[in-house]
Every structure is written in C-alpha cells, then in structure tokens.
Amino acid sequence: MAGTARVSAAGAYIEDGPSDGVWASAFGAYVEYQSADQRARSSALGAFVEQSATGAFASAFGLYVEMGTAAVGTVGQWGVLIDWDFDGTYDDETDRVIAADGHQALASFGRSIVAGKGIVSQANLVLRNNDGRYSALNESSPIYDAIQNGQGYHAPIIIKRMNSDLQWVNIFTGVVKIPRESSPTSFDISTVELDCRGAEEKVLTKRVSTSQSDFASWANLGGVPEGTILAQWFDDAGIPSNQLSIDTSQAHINWAWMDDESPIEAAWELAEAVAGRVYANPDGTIIYENNQAWLANPPSRHTVSQGTLTRQDFSALIPFYSDAELYRTVNVEITARQQTDADILWEPADIVVIPSSGTVTVWARVQQPIYRLDSINYTATTSGGEDITDDVSLSYTAYAQRVKLTFTNANALEAAELALLNITGQPSDGYDSDERSRESAAAFWAAAGTAGTATRLGDRTKVLRNPLIQTQGQAEFLSEYLGSWYEEPSLFFKAQGVVGDEGRRLGDRYTITDGSVMTSSRDAFITGIRWRWDHQGYWQDLELIDGAGIFPYMDGAGGTPDYFIIGTDTLGTASASPGRVFF
Fold first, then answer.
1. Strand partners of residue 437
2. Which terminus of the chain has a lower count of CB atoms within 10 Å, N or C?
3. pTM of this structure
C-alpha cells in the first residue's frame, strides 16, 4: 500500500502515514487498520472507513474515498466558500467541514405563507480547527488579519453541491456571524462553529428612510405598483437589481414610506398588504412573489409536480391539521390617508446652539409624513442677542418623516443660538379606518349531529391591521382570500429524512403518497426545507402545505390552474378559457 494517495469527495487527501498501514488524513486525523483482515479502519474522528470490492473506501461521513485521483468534480461533491477579507475572492474551506445544517422557510411551520414577518434563512457549520486557522487570537493564522477583533462578522459565504449534470447548485448564500471557537478536549479536536444567515440578514440590519420626493411623487401618481416600491426600497438599501427578482404587481399603494426602518421588514409588511411574500433564495437573490405566483406557468415547478414522495423516500411522514390560523371571521382594516392643511411640522424642544466656526446636525422627526415641505425657518443670534443669521448656513436632506438639518456657523468669535427654528409644510395624515369583513359559511362551523342548529364553541376572528392596506379593493380581496384559507383547519405535511436534492426550492410542488395514512395522493407546496450534511450523508426534512387547501382550482382543464392569472390570461373573447376570477 506504500505510496498510495486517495482523494475524498470532500476534497481531502488521505496519504500514507508515519508507519505501514496507517494513513494521515487532511482532516488532521489518523486512519488506522482496525482488524486483522485490514478491511476496516477507524479514524480519530470516530468514523469507520470500509473498503469496497472496487478498492474504494466508504466513510461513515457518507463521503467516498477513491484509490488514485478520485472524486473531485463528481455528483454530490460539496463546496464551502468564504470571503473572509471582503475582497471578492473566496477561500475554499470544504476540506475542514465536519458537519453542516440549515433551514429556510416562508413562515413558521403550521402557518400560512401570508404574514407580516418573514424568516431569515440560516446555516450552521462545524469546521476542524486543529491548526488554529479560525482562532482570532492566533497571529500565525493565515486569515488572522481578517478575523481578529471580530472582523469576520458578516463575511460572505456560499455553500454549494454538484448535481447530476455536474453543475454547482447553491444550497445557501449569506453571511457569517462571528465564529465561535472550541478548544480541543481528550475526546474532540479543536473546532469552530459558524452561525450563518441568509441574504435577508444584510438588509435586516440596515436602517433606511424614504425620501420625501419619492413619497410625494408616488402619492401624486395616485399610487404606484408594489413592485415599484419594493425595487426603490431595496435600491435605497444598496441592493443591486441583479440580486432582486420582483414579480408582477397586483395593486397600487398610494402612501408608502420607511422611517429609519429595516428594508426587509418593511418589504415583509408591504407583501402582507397584497398577500405576497418576500424571501431570499439559496442563490442570495431577494424574491418577491405575488399572490398568484404558485399558479403561474412558467415557472412550471409550481404548476407541475416535481416528483412523488412515497414511503421509500422518507423515514417518516407526518400529516396534520393546524388550527394556528383557524378563523370564522376575517376583518381587514383600511388605513386611508390624505393631505391636510399646511402647518408647522416641527419645532425643536430646546434652542439649538452652533459653536463658533462649528457645524451641528439636527434630525427633525415629524409626527406625520411630509407630503409637501414649504420652508425651514430660523434666526441666529449671539448669547447677547446680536443677529448673526448671515453667518449661519443650512443644508438639508428631506425624508418622508424626518429632515436632516446641517447648520454651519462661519462666525469665528461667537456661538450662534437658533431662535424661531421650525419646518413648515403639508403633512399626510391618516383618518378614521374602515374595514371589510368576511364571515365563513362553511359547514365546518356547524356542530355535527345537530342539523346545523348549533355552532362550534368560540367565534374566532382574525383582525388584519397594516398601514399599507389603504383601499377598499385591497381590503375586500384580502378578506376573501385569507378568509377562504382560514375558515377550516389547514393541512400540512412534514416529510422527514428525505434524501437531499440540492435543486429543491421553496414553492416547489410535490405529490405525496403513503397508503398507511391516506387513501389517495395529495399535491403540496414546499414551505420550508431543513437540511443537514454530516457523516450520514445529505438529508432534508420538507415542510409542505396542501395545495387544494389553498387553491381549490389549481388543477383545471389540461392540468393548468383554473384561475385568471394577471400577466398571463387575456380578458374577453381573446381567451378561450380565461379562468375563474381569483378572489
């Protein structure tokens, strides 16, 4: 066996070690003969390595170790890349990975996909650190300059896997939070844990305000599509357009603004107001899907089943009905706004003092967003009352609900006290809310065995309050759309221990069949994916919502949805089968 080298699917070399019959692994662990027949070997990581009939070795980590030049560029190969110093060049950390797992979802499992708050995707990795590469206090580490003093925070990371077409497919794209190191023990080597967050994290931690000009211009247009607003908000946050995918808009929003807010949280709120959803996919793209996205074709992955999951495909199937969003009545409030009379919008609580030859910045936050800014007024005097207004200059930036005022005092001898400082203009104010209500007529709410004369205990009511629900049309649509979802318990599935498929995505449609728990097959949409990669291989736990429960007519003639799809179908006689009115 002397002189033989082997390469694992993780890209790690295993070579002859210090004595005959011993191999030194690039993981820093020795692999030795375990039995007299020299077929089994035990590694210092505690995983057995067995020899196959072809001379390949199968590791308990689920990675094959081949004789010779081996499994680089083959199906199932993984890649873990991190840009520690933010220069656009990624370091390949794959060889050091001991285990990894992650989760992405549209909403908390057991709840619908329409919510005012999304879920940031995440991944967790454990890497070997026996040489101190990830030790922030180790000055000899090759990445010391990049990770010292917590500078590894938010380093970009990509986790990928090679598919059957020998193409890399991203499992996760996001950022690393500060690495957490563990020193070696008598049982374990030194490791580091990486807690990672998806592309949403980069936007979640930003704070952005909408410009006053955008706020007013959108209102002057009578409202703009939600897609236009989302694109501007993400642009304000510094997200380039090639990292966005924005679906066809379904509504016009008259008054929309952020005031020192997280753009992703504002986007979640806007998506809720039109029954859409915003999330980041494994490629790091922030996606907005409208309320008809899973009925549109393309992409066919929503309208055509991407495969059938049978008892042979999962270790366990858990179907269950959830009452987390079970409501007999849905009330949707309308928050209308209008321009009011011009007035003083802001005055400071105390006198603003600008030092001689100094500059002072004041943030003026107004109570209501500014439809029109008319003037910024002030008089500058010395402490003795001398007028030095001509010595003070002002520059400002106006946002929808705050104004940044920067005053500069050119007087080299006297401080300037600003008297009568105020901002005038025309605000946009909300007025008394209206609402639209839908009460379920479903038989579910009639108690069994009483001929419909009694009802189930409790009269559960959902009240949806969102400042971006501003028109009767929005409220009527949402009350009907959500009311049809919420009027009966929703059916969900959890398929555990499914062999991992790097190509699976949120929203993919799958057929589920298991004769032990169901009479006939059901089609469902993936709403969450939990994945893990360790010594047992690559596995996924899939969270799904029953398709017919949310879209009763998702399978019409010819296998296409029997709904009128905005952007696809045509009104009138131009379309032979335009489909049903979508709520």
1. 331
2. N
3. 0.83
